[in-house]
Structure formats: C-alpha cells, structure tokens
Amino acid sequence: MYVVGIDLGGTFFKVGLVDTESGEILRKVEWETRVAEGKEKVVKRMAQAVLEVSNGEDYIGVGIGSPGSIDHDNGIVRFSPNFPDWINFNLGGTLSKLLNKPVFVENDANAFVLGEKWFGAGKGHEHIVALTLGTGVGGGVISHGKLITGKDGIGTELGHVIVEPNGPQCGCGNYGCLEAIASATAIRRMALEGQKKFPESEIFSAEEINAKAVFDAARNGDLLGQMIAERVVNALAIGVANFIHIFNPSIVVIGGGVSRAGNILFAPLREKVRHLVMPSFKDTYTIVQSPLVENAGILGAASIVLQNL
Amino acid sequence: MYVVGIDLGGTFFKVGLVDTESGEILRKVEWETRVAEGKEKVVKRMAQAVLEVSNGEDYIGVGIGSPGSIDHDNGIVRFSPNFPDWINFNLGGTLSKLLNKPVFVENDANAFVLGEKWFGAGKGHEHIVALTLGTGVGGGVISHGKLITGKDGIGTELGHVIVEPNGPQCGCGNYGCLEAIASATAIRRMALEGQKKFPESEIFSAEEINAKAVFDAARNGDLLGQMIAERVVNALAIGVANFIHIFNPSIVVIGGGVSRAGNILFAPLREKVRHLVMPSFKDTYTIVQSPLVENAGILGAASIVLQNL
C-alpha cells in the first residue's frame, strides 16, 4: 500500500511516495515552494510533484505536514508565519480536488510524532512525546494512542514551555522558553554571545557557527562549547522531565538538526532526566534520538494519512 | 439516577449519595479511615458507610478517589504514601464484593477534574486542566473528552512541573516544583521563613499560620503577605501558561484550600497568564476557581462512575 507524504516548508517542499509496509520512500522530489507566486500556484505545483513521484502507481491518500496553526479536521491552514497570506486557506480541499484523492493536513510537529509512531522509534508505543530541535523547537504528543491537539488544534507547543524563568528571550516574547535555549537558533546565538569572552574557542574556526560547531567543540573539550552544551542539556532535561511527569510516556523521541549531536547531547540528558523524575517514573520511559533523520518530514506527512484512515 | 462517591483520605473518608441529574449530595457521612486497623477493616467500614448513605436507595455504582498511584483499569491501589501497606491492593474488587455493585477507583486529582467535568466548572468542556492547591498540588487533565493518565496511569503530575529551577526544594527531591511554591504547605513554609525578617507581619497574629493567613494579610497590604502571594502567583502563572501551551484547554479550574483565597489570587494570575500565552492562545481559555468547594471530593469520586459507565 502506498501513501504520499508532503513536507511543506517556507522555502522548499518535499514530496515522497511511501511504501507503508516497509516505510521506504520509493521516489521523492524536492521543489521550491515559491510562496510569492500565490497559494493556488503553490498547490498546483504540489499536485504536479505528487504525480511525478506516484508515476502511475496507485496511492490511498496524501498527507501534508505544514508549519503553522492547522485545522486538521478540515484540512485548513488557519495561519502560518511561513505563508503570510494563507489565512484560513483550505489547503487540503484544494489539493484534493486537483488529485481526486483524500488529503489530510497536520501541523509539522504533530506529523513528526506520527512519523515516529508509524515508521520510527515510536512503533508499538501508545504514549509518545516527541521534540524537534531545529530553527525552533516543535512538540508532538501521542497519548493513549491518539494525537493530543487541544480544543483549537494548537496544543503541545512543547517548545514554549518555560524552563528558565528570567532566561533568554524567546521569539514568542517570553523569557526562558525551551526554544530560547535548545533550538539551533538559540545555540548559535549563545555561541555568538560567547565570542567576546572566548574569542579563541574552536567554535569560531568552524565553517559555520551553528549547533554542529558548538557540539563538535564541546566534544573536543572546548570550554565555551561545553558551557553551551551543558545549558542546552539542562534546559532539555527540565523540559523532558516535565513532559514525563505530565504524559507518563513510554518513549521520548528527540529529532531535528540539533539531535544529530548524538551522544554528547543524549548521554548527559538521560542522566539528568533520571535524577529529575520521581521514583514512580523511573524506568517507565526511554529517551531516544529520532532514527528518521532527513526522511522524518515525508514519513511524518505520510503517517497523517495512516492515522486518519 | 444515583451514584455513590467516596473521597478517601489518610485520616478521614467521606461518602455521599449523589443525584447525577442535579449534582446534589442527598446524604453524606465522614468517618475516620483508621489505616492502622488494616485494609480489610477499612474497606468493611467503607461498605457500611455506603449502606448508611444509600439507605435502601438504588445506585448504579461506587467511585473512589484515592491518593497514590492507581491502576484504574483494575481498581487497584499500586501504592500510596497515605496507606503504607496498601501495595497492589485490589480496593475496587474488595469493596465491589461486599456491596455487589461495580466499583471504580481513580487517583484523587483525576477524580477532581472528572468532578469538574460532570458537576462543576468544566460542564460541557472537552479540554480541561485542573489543579488542586492543597497539602500538595495535584493535577488532572481531560483532553478530547478523555482523562489523560499515561502509560502506567501516573501522568498529569502537574504539581511536579518545575517552574522555578533552583527554587525551594520539593518533597519529591527536586527544586522549584509548582508544589514547592503554590501548595498550602509551601505557603506556610514561606511565611515561617519570613518571620525573622518580618516579625511584625500580621500573618503571625492570625490564629493559625497558613495560606489563609497569608492571603488575608496580603489583602490588608501586609508586605510579607504580598511578597508570598506574588511568588505564588508567579509560579502558578508559569505553570498554567505551560499547561495552556501544552493542552490548549478551554478551561483551567483551580481548587483546593489555597484557591479559596479568591480574587487576590485569581485576578493577578489571570493577568499574568494573559501576558505569558502566545497570541494564538489569547481568549481560547478561561481560568476559574472550582465551584465545588468542600463537595469536590465526593462529587469527583461519583464522577468516576459516570465517566466509566
């Protein structure tokens, strides 16, 4: 059985034909989104991309993971910072008409946790907390087998849980959100803030000053790198312990670019969370790095179809 | 239609016959629990109390709200700090045999949110976050109409979400849990800590040094009272904003002894939460004081039956 997953971003969208049995992506394309050309044209190009990857193969439906606030029952993008003029835009209906197939739309962080449930580390789990550490920090939760979305479909904003009151300001305006410390953007910001005090840190001899450079430096014993890594781990540990106390999940999956730091992030994170959770929660959960890596977007989007049909 | 609710505490248990239409408690008794006499005797006395309040009236079942970790599918008390020897005790089955009626057991904080849904401020709501500010801070969440309990039934420990890292130590061992600042116990502790610096605070001329004395003093412009009240409000505001971002509820209900402070607590809390939530969450929720007051326990327990049948 095949489904199509569309990972919709502000700059590019990726479309893949997914074999639901094996979780393999048989064909995929990555096209420019070209938001400026208007939403109707964007959707038309998405339809063309679907035809290209399906290439005559039958598929049961299309899932779209989109940034922003999504009315998933009706496939509507309420609003999205990435698509300023997509206000209450019937993305699902518009694409469905062009393809004559069912189309489901979900917030991209929710798509991520669905992807983990159907194809990733969350297989067989009914209680999953998922975090994506990228430009921002996204969150998705499956509880008792179902996606938690809240009254208006805007819940599980796990990146905006406050973990360091009076901490750095977040894009949302608050201080000390998880996103303000553990996102790729925040890690880069903390590196630049440290440059005056640590001009010789090896972070600044990296090709690009980013999360990878920070964790690489930390791994080599660079002091600034280690200080930033520790702060990220502490913030994540408080967040993850909170989520464990709230959702009592069997697994916490962490993905996104920052998660590729691997063990230098996950080893101390696991240790700190173990100290923070109450005795009754010990050994009730595992914390894992997302195995889906660069396919997380397409597989997550494809999972929306499986969760709905 | 009638149900019986049992609010089980370490010192007393309350039993009430509840009219499910009106939410009225027709008859109620409060008996000593006498844990030391052994669990079989406690349950026997609970059965006697049920017979006394039902008084020949037919009822469809019994709900028990119990502190501790509850296996609600099987009516089992896994463990409870209040009943040290009740390890994996089949409380529901034991009482059910004596009464020949279905008996359902749930954690008391979960019973509280169910009580709000069926009889209180949460009527007609499918997304409810509830907090009880008492000796500890308990939490219960209804999301998409269903109780969130997690994989092992131990979730929604909202009182142990960290809102002030490096804050006061909590009974659980962590620092800065909501419970370590916003529980009645914590408020009393902060008052006593302030006594050296503010010996003339009117808190210390109250009959009892407790949350009521602190909020009464704050209301009269007492500086220590105001400082403690502000800290409690700040901690609660961070917690409640986090829960709104996580669950996107339509209502947040706050009960327990501390909530009786009323407006001096709720007015600044509403204002601060309004500042903390992201624009998309503005006007999606209300924050209310539990209307059930001293009947919350029995009505919550009775609701467990309604939620299960």
Account of the 3D structure:
The structure is a homodimer of 309-residue chains. Chain A has helices at residues 39-54, 91-99, 108-119, 179-182, 184-194, 211-219, 223-247, 263-276, 296-308; strands at residues 2-8, 12-19, 24-32, 62-66, 69-71, 76-79, 103-107, 128-133, 137-143, 146-147, 251-255, 286-289. Chain A has 309 residues and is α/β, with parallel strands linked by helices. The model of chain A has no long low-confidence stretch (mean pLDDT 96). The A-B interface holds A 69, 79, 126-127, 139, 141, 143-144, 146, 148-158, 160-165, 172-174, 234, 238, 241-242, 245-250, 276, 278, 280-281, 284 and B 69, 79, 126-127, 141, 143-144, 146, 148-158, 160-165, 172-174, 234, 238, 241-242, 245-250, 276, 278, 280-281, 284.
| Biggest sheet descriptor of chain A | 5 strands, mixed
Order of helices and strands of chain A: EEEHEEEHEHEEEHHHHEHEH
According to DSSP, the number of beta strands of chain A is 12
Question: Biggest sheet of chain A, strands in spatial order?
Answer: 3-2-1-4-7
What is the CATH H-level superfamily of the largest domain in chain A? ATPase, nucleotide binding domain
Q: Supply the number of helical segments of chain A.
A: 9
Largest interface chains and counts: A-B, 44 and 43 residues
Text of the CATH class of the largest domain in chain A:
Alpha Beta
Give me the Rg of chain A, rounded: 20 Å
The CATH architecture of the largest domain in chain A is 2-Layer Sandwich
- Envelope shape of chain A: globular
Named CATH topology of the largest domain in chain A: Nucleotidyltransferase, domain 5
Identify the quaternary structure here: homodimer
Helix content of chain A: 25-40%
- In terms of DSSP E residues, the strand content of chain A is 15-25%
Keywords (chains A, B): Kinase, Transferase
Family (chains A, B): Belongs to the ROK (NagC/XylR) family.
Protein name (chains A, B): Glucokinase
Organism (chains A, B): Fervidobacterium gondwanense DSM 13020
